[in-house]
Amino acid sequence: MINIQRKTIQRQIIFDVLRSLEHPTVSQINDVIQKEHPAISKSTIYRNLRQMEDEKLVCRIWLPNDTERYDNNTTPHYHLKCTSCGTIYDIEPDTIEQKTKNPTNTATISTISTIVAKAIKKRYNFAVTKKDLVFSGTCGEC
Amino acid sequence: MINIQRKTIQRQIIFDVLRSLEHPTVSQINDVIQKEHPAISKSTIYRNLRQMEDEKLVCRIWLPNDTERYDNNTTPHYHLKCTSCGTIYDIEPDTIEQKTKNPTNTATISTISTIVAKAIKKRYNFAVTKKDLVFSGTCGEC
DNA sequence: TAGTATTTGATACTAGTTACTATTAAGGAG
DNA sequence: CTCCTTAATAGTAACTAGTATCAAATACTA
Computed over its alpha carbons, how large is the radius of gyration of chain A? Predict the structure, then answer.
């Protein structure tokens, strides 16, 4: 009996709260949990979030000039961050398309990033396993 | 006399140390400075690094699962991080090239990221001003 | 129900920020 | 060149964010 994930109430609460929020910081998750369950410690929260990340139940995301955030969208995708209002948007890599110079050509971010990963392998002999792409700027609302 | 940047010895020391290191963390910068100048406080170090970032003298970079780092390469470029040895490599966006399906086509990361930024504008009405692209994986040495 | 390894919560630590007082660089007047 | 003024900067201390350690509690299995 080694390394089995146990089902604890704390773990279930943390997961549920995370699922109810959009790109929350740990502090936001903590605020919600404290109201109902003040006995749950921050160690437990951080620890469980990391564990869920390892299990691929959630993603931990790193945006410039921000604290760590969690994302319950586990499909591969990238992020936009509005530097004016702070909102974080998901970019779905396979839905976005852009014609290149040749009007019959279209490219998704997904295929583009695959091309880049191959180029990196060729040029730097570096095997890419994870891509963190963040675009900062101003959103349509601002 | 408002908002003039003053030339302080602390500022010069911090800048010189930063220039001598590759992608240093603040802790690495601090370690070097403390040996010669133990009186310089961490607030001063953090404050000056941020100020130099505002002046575009250095870049602050954010890598997944890492503390903040500074980069004295101020030309636009992206990063590779080896998850095995921890080494950080710069990708020069204009030097890397990769043929697309059409063998007469080549694309730099720079042009690709410009295409993506335009697509983001069209699709999400979001004006990209900064791109933070980090590729994690295993380097040739590991 | 008992045994045991995992998980929790507490505590103390490292990393980074903020607020505030004391110091100092730069510019002007004599 | 020296003194004065003043706003920017330095250092201190106290705070938020995140990590590590470890005894106590608890989930799982037999």
Answer: 19
Count of beta carbons in the 10 Å neighbourhood of residue B121:
15
Asked if A103 has any chain B CB less than 8 Å from its own CB, the reply is no
| Nucleotide with C1' nearest the A25 CA | D17
Q: How confident is the model at residue B48 (pLDDT cuts 50, 70, 90)?
A: very high
Domain holding A86: CATH number?
Answer: 3.30.1490.190
For residue B121, the distance in angstroms to the closest alpha carbon of chain A comes to: 9
Could you tell me if B83 and B47 lie in one domain? no
- Say which CATH number the domain at B19 has: 1.10.10.10
User: What's the total number of domains in chain A?
Assistant: 2
Return the SS3 of B6: coil
Same-domain check for residues A7 and A53? yes
**Residue B19 beta carbon within 7 A of nucleic strand D:** no
Please tell me whether residue A98 adopts helix, strand or coil conformation: strand
Q: Distance in angstroms, CA of A32 to C1' of D25?
A: 24
The reply to whether the predicted model has a pTM over 0.70 is yes
Chain A residues whose CB is inside 8 A of the B127 CB are 137-138
